[in-house]
Amino acid sequence: MSNELIALGVEGLGLDLTPENLANLELFLQEMHRWNRVHNLTAIDNEQDSIRLHLIDSITVLPIMRHYLKIQSPQIADLGSGGGLPAIPIAILQPSWHLTLIEAVRKKTAFLQHIRGKLGLKNIEVLSERAEAVAKARPGQFDAVISRAFSSLTQFLDLSLPLLRPGGLVFAMKGKRADEELKAVCIDSWQLLADESLHIPNLAVERRLLVLSPMRKLPLSAQH
């Protein structure tokens, strides 16, 4: 078991990680750090520590996602996947979930393809496309959409909507501006199912996971 991940508090997340899980998370961090020195995958201050904390940040959402995603093999899109957060850690820990990583920057998708092969992650696919293009090509194909620090909440919801199947869910990872961003969401279009505070061990910043679902539009005959 990785002493570094233990020091960050990964055991306190209650996820019952196996030695193989920890080894794969460690390898992901090592490869991300190695590529970041050359390709600038993430804009961070303290490189190695920040990458590790980003990983912990990413996997704290899992208990909530597990609660809401009841189907056995959900199809999940990660918008603006960047260096693979949160999708790669989630894929490592949830091998039955299928994750589609959508990232328009080719140097980042090159890394995502590399890590897919390096870790043998058969449950992910990488699309070097803008979210709008994927929505046109594959409308209504996803049970859930997630993002981490991708855009404003309203923009994220607008991009997610055409990707979602009926009854689909949006998982928005947000920080201290979550309340402000929620005020801009049209309550006639979206239902807030959950607003969960996330405890990140050894990280004294506010993290929240918002779970939203699009409101069903009534047929015209039912509106009279």
UniProtKB/TrEMBL annotation:
Q: Which InterPro entries match?
A: rRNA_ssu_MeTfrase_G, SAM-dependent_MTases_sf
Tell me which UniProt keywords the record has, alphabetically.
Answer: Cytoplasm, Methyltransferase, rRNA processing, S-adenosyl-L-methionine, Transferase
State the EC number(s).
2.1.1.170
For the ligand (S-adenosyl-L-methionine), the binding residues are G80, L85, A131, E132, R148
The terms under GO molecular function for this entry are:
rRNA (guanine-N7-)-methyltransferase activity
One of the Pfam families matching this protein, by short name: GidB
Q: Does the keyword rRNA processing apply?
A: yes
Could you name the domain of life of the organism this protein comes from? Bacteria
Q: Does the keyword Secreted apply?
A: no
EC class: transferase
Q: Which GO terms describe its cellular component?
A: cytosol
Name the catalysed reactions: guanosine(527) in 16S rRNA + S-adenosyl-L-methionine = N(7)-methylguanosine(527) in 16S rRNA + S-adenosyl-L-homocysteine
Give its localization: Cytoplasm
Q: What does this protein do?
A: Specifically methylates the N7 position of guanine in position 527 of 16S rRNA.
HAMAP family (alphabetical): 16SrRNA_methyltr_G
| Similarity comment | Belongs to the methyltransferase superfamily. RNA methyltransferase RsmG family.
Protein name as it appears in the record? Ribosomal RNA small subunit methyltransferase G
The organism is Polynucleobacter antarcticus
